[in-house]
Amino acid sequence: MIGAIFVTGPAGTGKSTFCGALKDWLISNDYNAAIVNLDPGSEFTPYEPDIDIRETVSLSQIMSEFNLGPNGAQIVAADLILENTQPIEEYLKELDDYYVIFDTPGQIELFSFRPGSPLLVDKLSQGKAMIAFITDAVLASTPSGFISQKMLYGSVMSRFFKPMLFVLNKTDLITDQDMENIQGWEQSSELLYDAFMDEKQEMVKDYFSSVLNAFQESRMLSKILPISSKDFMGFEDIYSEMSLFFTGGADADTMFRDD
Fold it and tell me: Where are the beta strands (DSSP E) in 104-173?
């Protein structure tokens, strides 16, 4: 494969829709692309997966075998994926010139915070992986919502330490002014701090000032990629970032590589 992009983020942010739209955009622009569904609990996907973990790991079977409810079965299933990667790996061997999109479980903790997930990413990506963190533009249009998404983004980065994209989905649902505010917060921790204090004046100011300064110093406030999976707006920018890392910028991107 040319490279693998693992799509994660909070529930309801449009991860699966993004996966399907990204594959469609790549194919419409004459690139080869495939989707791997890694969510054994998914009842519906808005795309036809090229390979589906549900064919190997059955949530209903786990519930029956281990006498578990849906939530417990999801956790067991997430851990079982690592033991059942052979069919996926065999399939990926045939995709030399493909971008491979991995749709991860809808609940972020089932992928991003399970002990085996970093190993799973390395195993399936052949060492060529990046993470797309999908966030909801409506939630991010308030300072507190934006900060909460950035905190989750940072926690995912600490788990995988791979190149990451902060993808702002559903931008067709917010106003131009909201978009301008979000882009301003991404560029300036001071603007974000002032907006947050206007929203939450009772908060402890020193604490959040330190948090936002940490965002800036750690490069968590760096680049935002606004998109709409509905009308493919912004997907050329997603591809540019993918291409830069996978084919054009690998030697320069030393932050995520061993010396």
Answer: 129-136, 164-169
CA-to-CA distance for 181 and 147, rounded, in angstroms?
A: 13
108-159, pLDDT tens digit by residue?
888 888 888 899 899 899 888 999 999 999 999 999 899 889 889 988 988 8
Please state the three-class secondary structure of 154-213 as a single string. Answer: HHHHHHHCCCEEEEEECHHHCCHHHHHHHHHHHHCHHHHHHHHHHHCCCCCHHHHHHHHH
Do residues 142 and 182 make contact, with C-beta atoms less than 8 angstroms apart? no
Radius of gyration (C-alpha) of the chain in whole angstroms: 19
Q: Which residues contact 166 (CB under 8 A, 6 or more apart)?
A: 133, 135, 150, 153, 222, 223, 224, 225
pTM: 0.86
- The residues, any chain, with a CB within 8 Å of residue 235's CB and separated by 6 or more, are 21, 22, 25, 227
Model pLDDT for residues 210-222, shown as the tens digit of each residue = 776 776 666 666 6
CB 185 within 8 A of CB 216: no
For 219, the token pair is 């490069």
DSSP bridge pairs for 103: 7, 37
What's the rounded Cα separation, in Å, for the pair 161 and 184?
26
Q: How far apart are CA 101 and CA 37, in angstroms?
A: 9
By CB atoms closer than 10 A (0-12, 13-18, 19+), residue 81 is buried
